[in-house]
Description:
The complex is a heterodimer of chains A (about 525) and B (about 525). Chain A is of the alpha+beta class and about 525 residues long. Helices cover about 25% and strands about 40% of the residues of chain A. Chain A contains eleven helices and 26 strands. Chain B folds into two domains: about 5-205, PmbA/TldD fold (2-Layer Sandwich), CATH 3.30.2290.10; about 255-520, no CATH class. In chain B, a hairpin with a 2-residue loop joins β9 and β10 (about 335-340).
Amino acid sequence: MASRLSVDLIETIKPVAEECLHDAQRRLARLRYADLRLEVSEAKWAVAENGSPKGSGDDESLSLGVRVLAGDRTVAPGYAGLALGAADAPDLPRILRDALERAYRRATANAEQKAEAREKFGGLGEALGETRLHPVEIRRDTVPAAYRVDPRALDLGEMTRFATDVSRQVASVAPALKYNWIATLSRLSRELFASTEGACIDQAFALTQGSCSVVAVAGATSQDLYDVLGHQRGWEILLEGVDEPLIRFPTFHDWALGLARQAVALAAAPPLPTSDREVVVVTDPHYNTLVSHEIIGHPVELDRALKMETAYAGRSWLLAGLGEHQVGKRVASPLVTAYSDPALPGYGHYTYDHEGTPARRVVHIDRGVFQGFMNSRQTAAIFGGQPNGHWKATDAALVPLIRMSNTAFGAGTRPPEEIIKEVDRGWYFAGHRTPSIAESRENFRISARAVYEIRDGALGRLHRDGGIVADSRDYLMNVDAVGADFRLYPIPNCGKGQPMQVKKLGNGGPTMRSRARVAGG
Amino acid sequence: MKSAAELAAAAERAFEYVRGQDGLLEAEVFTAANGALLTRLNYTSHIPCNGVEEPKSTESCGLGIRAVFASPDGPRIGFGSEPSDLGPAGAERALERARHAAVADPDFVSLPDPSREPRALADYHDPRLMEVDDASLVDMGFQVVGGALRTFLASSRLATLAEDDAALRRLGLIVGGDVTILQERIAIVSTRLPRVQTDESTLMTAFVTSMVEAHAAKGSGASTGTRLDHFSDEAGVEAAQNAIRAIGGERVPSGEYTVIFGRQPVADLLNNLVVPACTANAFYSSRTPFLGKLGRPVAAPQLHVYDHGAMPGLMGSKGITCEGLPTGRTDLIRSGVLVGCLSSWYATQRLLRDPALGEKLGATGRVAQAALAPRNGFRFGAGGGRQFDVPPGIAASNVVVEGAEPVALDELVRAVKHGLYVGRIWYTYPINGLRAGDFTCTVVADSYIIRDGRLASPLRANAIRINDNIGRILDNIVGITKDVKGTIVWAADEVVYAPEIAVRGVRVDAIAGFMEELE
């Protein structure tokens, strides 16, 4: 039988990968640059539904991605990606060589066609430039994963019993709770990045996640809630919860029961009435996690701002052209600061991105003034500025894109209770649910899990099916209070790219207060 | 890429090995090889670019085994897979994983039994699409970009807006999108379907968005096909033409409008709201807005919606499902009445045995059984392809939307008289959960204001948000056009063959007025 794949393969393949890159540099005459990424993952998962086990798995995966910049009259990129298995491990030197050659053929054909198009299309051809990567510090480094309970050491039967037990208890919360789905995952992955510039970076990551989906029914109303709890740690987070300065969760069991009870309460609650004008809205850190994701994180991705996502994820209202953008301009109230920081813990944490750039904090909004974007080496070379390490893929076989790390609203100084206490009439939005954002992120409608009326400085009646609808800039400019209660949460399913890459990342913020229209069911 | 014959031989060998194992009650071996060739386009006249940004590919191959094991507590069902290795060691490893992962799922009845319906589709793929080389992949991308750039250069409208090359570039001409070729091969054999079956399919799409960004003018174009000789620069040309047509877009105030939804919006509403509401799992989990409504009206009487995975020449057609069952036609909504659901074998067996079946579906017995034919058990994923490493789920194939008394578009526009033609929507989600039916989206391109029975002027992109409810939309349909066209939406599994549909009383809000201040 073929031996199982192990993350230890990365250790043995490092010198081979580097030799393949050197070999390509020697043999392929028009090659200007190449990098390769190899990823091995060992994952265990279990799923239960309505108190019964539904499935489990103990899987390993190996994938490879190659980028080559090559050409003669101009330089262009070419890529190749492969999903591999244990049977491929002995043959990896040949597979790496073949993949490099394939990406090289694509890059050289691309460069030749680009040079022809530049000549053929006159003035419009001038925009077709040579592909350049902004220089970065070349690193050779190994970064270990952080965990207490090794994902590889977990007993699959025990994981299944745990998920089934949580599901059974959720099912018994109330007769109105008609459906639940519980999933747990714990995995260890290790990634190698090597380039012809001499980079060789070996990073390992542990990730554990618990997911809960519940449906509570009351007459013609179904309340359908879904959320995840997770961290880049081991299984211990599901059993013990997390109590860190920026990330706090109860145990998975208590957390899932809480979600179920909320669904039951909401199913019996009235829908939020829609307002025809702006009202005072107070939003909790969980709701602001999605706000920071949608109206801060996405529009500050420089690939999107440079129009590379026009057909898919959309553009950014923060940049019209290289000389027409909002950098240095006020886009929010002076109380609003927002940033992306891969050094913070949680789903958005990493040390190097997928082109070996040391990841660093980038401030997007500093006290209301827009400062800049998350970028990659290629987009930094076009727009200017230092690469900040946000070029990431969900799998080594896929081409990276600019993705959020931990993107969040910065903390303020106000106690959240005080922010509510100052409101005589308004609405409090607790927990995020579903977003719909305009193409350049200039307008949004985001629904909340629960909405409470605020009357005379206190939370009142619970409402279901409500959210905020606003133009992004107006909403940010209207912020008049920011809490000290900053939290980071995991976002498990951010979609971007073609083919779609569904990525895990971190977002967060504190309690905030603004003015906006509210939209109900 | 492995041939279908190689996949079939591997499946048979693995099945022989698996069925000889102790304690095994039944098993299924699924082998698959997938290729996705994709060249991503990015031309921007005002920003340095590559034209063809990412000529790339992904490939995968492997086998997956579903196996049912005897145990003192009853049968245990497990799934295991192995990438790359189709030989005995791969089968051994996958079976071991399935055994290790097996659980006692009380809803499991059996692996799929043979269908009484015959297979309708075989040998329908284009072998040339299985063999596209690297240079051709790049060339196809530049053909599409070139089609758009030629259209821009030939435009008298743009010539009046830009006196010279530099001014033309400053208009912010954008061409984005991709050309994608999907190559799929599978083989499947099981205890209950012991004759190995194979299936091969190919699909080619070009999906392009163009802009004259300085005028907030956006248009889209697409071409789709199952044969290489269908390919042309059409998508680029169409997108550029639509972007130029969109110059001078106007805003409209908030209010209720009669809206003609173009094909992409119809496909988007189907993809995000109607199709998910018509799956067996949505009924099982009480999530669907059609809960308990089988046999009852859910839309205007003129609306028909069906899924047809076996229609020759349609892009989403397959010979068999990823459970080895024949594909075919499943009526979902007929004359406005809910008549069926998309389902897999497992989901059908589970829902038919659910004590709350009558309450959830609205019917029991033979009526329910007929409505839950398992013609849609697929293993789609990873942006296309039939994946060996996941068990089957429910997915649509070709969703066809038709009207009872369809008319030509110009006739429909005349009948509407005053309203909006919405050609492309964006971020269309059930904002308060699927059952509530509330949805929202913004209008991003290809849209017009209808005045006096004609498309009078373009509607400015990103200037309105639709806030409505899918139940209201389906009830308020007032007209459907004749011609359906295959339409894909980003990251969707299915292809929607969509007409244009007019709906009265659609709620629209004006948005993002501040964007004009930035220009």
